[in-house]
Write a structure and sequence with these properties.
The chain has 407 residues and is mostly helical. The chain is built from 13 helices and 4 strands. Helix 2 crosses helix 3, helix 4 packs antiparallel against helix 5 and helix 8 packs across helix 10.
């Protein structure tokens, strides 16, 4: 949902996952098709439902914010929070955030449960209902902690620095963003998943050498016990500095050859080589700055012109701030996804150059798509608006073109 929902989804999803279509050892350039296989009706149906779920989630969150503002319930909830906190401003802000997050969770729980059932319906999940409830509770509590910290900083700046609050808060948010990227692998991910050092020393050394060739020092290679919850596979290069590590889902280790795993990680390392993390932070900084500027304008307009609030630091205006940021995020999504797809194509080209043959890349992409029921060839509009990665068919075509050019 929106930021205010506190629905903190800590899923590492650079690559979709899959069960093997055929024995990897039997695959060769002769067995790999020149074009991507056609999407199955099941895959198209699954992805269509997922998209509509995402749209419904967005609309429900947006509707909640509008209802709070139009009815004046945001002010009623503020008064209740102040009474519950004995008029203590900082504590009242935390109570207010708790109430909003609880309302958002209540509004969205039906969609969340449907999403859980959908994964089982398409045989993509191993998670039991009780474990899902536990994860939902964890996500709510972790989200609550982070959102409370963010909102407390926000209203401290509004109280103390009303003229420049948006610039100062923007700078603090960037710092928190970088800190979170560094701490997530060692603090956040283990809350939801189990990790253990990879026992396959040959594969471990192979991936570490791949990282060294990319100019990055990997602090460890870990097995990610994803199969406890999902039948999907995944892999990622996570963390910054001393927390940088490779994580490999057990479903990937069980069903993919070392060559295929190396091809997947070569793509991830391509992001490092092309400094996509730094570029992403720069883009995030620019879009966040624009968001804070727009929020400041909307807040002043609501206070000075519409007299909706008595002062800038009236935390009843939090739904308005979130609404502004949400609308801007919706409008900016196609541009941000286009930037992401450009980065993904660069990372793919690095992978092509880093591995002995593109065949393992092609076979792994097909297997990942098959296992995750990913659409290989979505419509142009769907890819343009919703996809942060190029269509799998385009990635496979690029791999074949590269192989042909390299002989």
């Amino acid at each position: 949902m929106l930021l205010i929902t506190g629905s903190l989804h800590l899923r590492v999803s650079h690559f979709p996952a899959c069960k093997p279509i055929m024995d990897a050892a039997a695959m060769s350039s002769a067995t790999i098709p020149a074009t991507a296989p056609v999407d199955s009706p099941e895959s198209r149906r699954y992805n269509r439902i997922r998209r509509w779920l995402g749209i419904a989630d967005f609309v429900v969150g947006l509707a909640l914010l509008v209802i709070l503002l139009v009815t004046g319930w945001n002010g009623t909830l503020r008064d209740f929070a102040l009474r519950a906190a004995f008029q203590h401003y900082t504590l009242a802000v935390a109570v207010y955030v708790l109430i909003l997050l609880a309302l958002a969770k209540l509004f969205g729980v039906g969609l969340d449960y449907y999403s859980f059932r959908l994964e089982h319906r398409f045989h993509l999940s191993n998670q039991r209902l009780r474990a899902w409830f536990v994860d939902e509770a964890k996500e709510f509590l972790v989200g609550l902690i982070f959102v409370v910290i963010i909102v407390e900083v926000l209203y401290f700046m509004l109280r103390e620095f009303p003229q420049h609050w948006w610039l100062l808060t923007w700078a603090v948010f960037l710092g928190l963003f970088v800190l979170l990227a560094q701490l997530a692998p060692v603090i956040l991910f283990p809350i939801f998943y189990k990790f253990e050092p990879l026992q396959d020393e040959d594969l471990k050394q192979r991936l570490v050498r791949l990282g060294e060739r990319a100019g990055t020092r990997v602090r460890g290679v870990y097995k990610w016990n994803l199969s406890e919850k999902s039948k999907k596979a995944n892999a990622a290069l996570t963390g910054l500095g001393s927390t940088r590590r490779i994580i490999l889902a057990d479903t990937l280790l069980e069903n993919y050859s070392p060559d295929e795993i190396e091809a997947v990680l070569a793509h991830e390392l391509g992001h490092h080589v092309h400094k996509h993390i730094l570029k992403g932070i720069a883009v995030q900084a620019g879009t966040t700055l624009l968001g804070f500027w727009a929020a400041n304008w909307a807040l002043h307009y609501a206070v000075d012109r519409l007299h909706m609030f008595d002062e800038l630091s009236d935390f009843a205006n939090l739904p308005l701030l979130v609404l502004v940021v949400t609308v801007l995020s919706f409008l900016a999504l196609p541009a941000l996804n286009a930037f992401s797809r450009f980065n993904e194509r660069q990372a793919d080209r690095y992978a092509f150059k880093s591995i002995a043959s593109v065949d393992p890349f092609i076979s792994s992409m097909n297997k990942l798509a098959e296992q995750n029921l990913a659409e290989r060839k979505p419509s142009r509009f769907v890819e343009w608006y919703f996809h942060s990665h190029p269509a799998i068919s385009r990635r496979l075509e690029a791999a074949h073109v590269w192989a042909k050019a390299e002989g």
